[in-house]
C-alpha cells in the first residue's frame, strides 16, 4: 500500500509539471554532459524532492501509526546524485534510509 501510494503520487505530480519530458538516458552525449558537471551538483531524474515530500510525509504519518517508529525503513533505489535521500533523512529522522545507486 505504501509503495503504491508513493508511485501514484509521483506519477500524478510528473504529469502535472509543465514542459516535463524525459531525458534520453540511452544517449552517450547525455551521460557525457552529466558527468562533466560539477560533482557537488545534484540531479533529479524523475521529480524534485520538494514536489514529492508532502505526499511522502502524509504516507509516513500512516506508516508511523501502523508500526513502531524505529521500524520504518525506506529504500531509495537509483539515488544517484539526487537530494531526495538527504531530504528524507531530514524529514524522517527516526527512519532507516538506504540509498542505492
Task: Provide a descriptive summary of the structure in words.
By secondary structure, this protein is mainly α. It has 4 helices and 2 strands; from the N terminus they run H-H-H-E-H-E. It is elongated and about 45 Å long. The model has no long low-confidence stretch (mean pLDDT 75).
Strand order of the largest sheet: 1-2
- Give the overall pLDDT as a whole number: 75
What count of helical segments does DSSP give?
4
Alpha-beta content class: mainly alpha
What's the order of the H and E elements? HHHEHE
Largest sheet, if any? 2 strands, parallel
Please give the share of residues in helix: 40-55%
- SS elements, strand count: 2
Q: Which oligomerization state do the chains in this entry correspond to?
A: single chain
Q: How does the overall form come out from the CA principal axes? A: elongated
Gyration radius, in Å: 15 Å
Q: Ranges with pLDDT <50 over ≥5 residues?
A: none
Portion in beta strands = 5-15%
Summarize the model shown.
The chain contains 4 helices and 2 strands.
What descriptive keywords fit this protein?
101 residues; 10% strand; 50% helix; mainly alpha; two-stranded parallel sheet; single chain
How is the secondary structure organized here?
Elements: H1 2-16, H2 28-36, H3 49-66, E1 73-77, H4 84-91, E2 96-100
Parallel strand pairs: 1-2
Amino acid at each position: 500500500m505504501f509503495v503504491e501510494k508513493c508511485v501514484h503520487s509521483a506519477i500524478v505530480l510528473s504529469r502535472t509539471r509543465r514542459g516535463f519530458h524525459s531525458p534520453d538516458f540511452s544517449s552517450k552525449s547525455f551521460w557525457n554532459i552529466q558527468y562533466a558537471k560539477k560533482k557537488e551538483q545534484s540531479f533529479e531524474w524523475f521529480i524534485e524532492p520538494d514536489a514529492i515530500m508532502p505526499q511522502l510525509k502524509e504516507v509516513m504519518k500512516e506508516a508511523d501509526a501502523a508500526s513502531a517508529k524505529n521500524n520504518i525503513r525506506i529504500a531509495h533505489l537509483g539515488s544517484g546524485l539526487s537530494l531526495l535521500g538527504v531530504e528524507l533523512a531530514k524529514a524522517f529522522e527516526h527512519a532507516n534510509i538506504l540509498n542505492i545507486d
